[in-house]
Specification:
By secondary structure, the chain is an alpha+beta fold. The protein is 28% helix and 28% strand.
């Protein structure tokens, strides 16, 4: 029976990309055949957690391309231990610990919640208790709320931090962070004599943050603050211009961002700052290109299994990077029998981070309409044969 050293990461929070941030560190040693109950009791004893009042959630990250895996039963522990045996270093595969209060276990399901496009999640039909009644309000998921008030609850610290940056741009002033941790977020005005301040803290050690104190009246000269105001980050400006890119047909250039930010918010951006803001806005809407490429094998597999008889080919480099893809749907193959024996191939440049060229082969059927036959993504148009 071997002993396995395990690092514990606690009092942190999960970001939108499945990474555990701003955590504290501890450690335990358990047997490699430990059960789920033994693992929970060992963690609770080391961290001094009363399991009669608290719920311990355990997750770990396998790799950056996979969402966190949760340990919830004996089989989950067994899978983790077998993975851990391959690398017994203390820092490998740390356990990310989240502790929640039983009374604050807000189980959000389709039956008791309703979500809208405004970025607000409202809890419905929750049992009434002195603890829950206080938080039976709207949980804000939007980082650009119309107003910020005492009592608001945000889904996590990252959301409330971005909301405050957006707020400072809209009201043309600058703040500085006085204190920031996994449990608190405290802002003050850049002017030393100003009474403006903002305080938010986590709710019962959860990821949610509640606005506790907010004095939005400045006792300093805002003109002075405006003159020393730093440029807003690309993330803030990007979140402000997201509606401009909701329609793919809309052309909204970095130059347009410069002009709108200057005319609407009196913020002067350089072209590169506006370009980065555009990239951030597109990332918010479409995600990261690398994530899309990682999903391509799964997409092609489902495509081939759903449309039997289709021809799907994916070619990678020796280091497992994307090279080519070729797709012919079964309906196009069967439809070719009734089409004119003429094939037209056209290509277009993919304006993404990785460039590439997309080729489409099409023909004309008996009714005179265009029928797509196949499409492919390649590195360039050439005469090379792909086997």
């Amino acid at each position: 029976m071997a002993k396995i050293p395990i690092m514990l990461q606690l009092n942190g929070n999960w970001d939108n990309f499945g990474r555990f941030r701003e955590f504290e560190v501890d450690g335990i040693v358990v047997d490699d055949d430990a059960s789920y109950s033994l693992l929970i009791s060992t963690i609770a004893h080391q961290l001094m957690i009363d399991t009669s009042e608290k719920i311990i959630e355990i997750k770990y990250i396998v790799n950056e391309h996979c969402p966190p895996m949760e340990i919830r039963n004996d089989m989950s522990v067994r899978v983790y231990m077998e993975t851990k045996k391959e690398n017994k270093n203390l820092g490998s595969y740390p356990l990310c610990i989240t502790v929640r209060d039983f009374n604050m276990e807000l189980s959000i399901t389709n039956e008791n919640t309703v979500a809208g496009s405004s970025g607000i999640l409202k809890l419905l039909d929750m049992p009434i208790s002195p603890v829950i009644e206080e938080y039976e309000i709207m949980i804000i998921t939007d980082s650009t709320p119309s107003s910020i008030e005492v009592g608001q609850v945000y889904q996590d610290k990252e959301t409330i931090a971005t909301a405050m940056k957006h707020y400072s741009v809209m009201h043309k002033f600058q703040f500085r962070v006085k204190r920031s941790s996994a449990r608190s977020y405290w802002l003050i005005c850049v002017s030393e004599n100003c009474t403006w301040h903002f305080k938010a803290t986590s709710i019962n050690d959860s990821a949610m943050f509640k606005v506790r104190n907010f004095d939005n009246q400045h006792t300093c000269s805002l003109m002075d603050n405006t003159s020393i105001q730093r440029k807003p980050t690309a993330m803030v400006v990007g979140s402000m211009v997201i509606p401009k890119y909701s329609d793919p047909k809309t052309i909204y250039t970095p130059k347009d961002i410069q002009l709108d930010m200057l005319s609407e918010h009196d913020v002067n951006l350089t072209y590169m700052q506006a370009w980065r803001a555009k990239e951030k806005a597109l990332q918010f809407l479409r995600g990261y290109p690398v994530d899309s490429y990682n999903k391509l094998p799964s997409y092609l597999y489902i495509l081939e299994k759903t449309y039997l008889g289709s021809v799907v080919r994916l070619k990678k480099t020796e280091d497992d990077c994307f090279l080519y893809v070729f797709v012919v749907i079964c309906t196009s193959i069967s439809g070719w029998e009734y089409c004119r024996p003429v094939v037209v191939v056209d290509g277009t440049f993919l304006k993404s981070s990785y460039r590439r060229i997309m080729l489409i082969a099409s023909t004309m059927d008996a009714a005179g309409t265009i029928l797509p036959l196949a499409y492919a993504v390649i590195d360039s148009e050439n005469d090379a044969l792909w086997k």
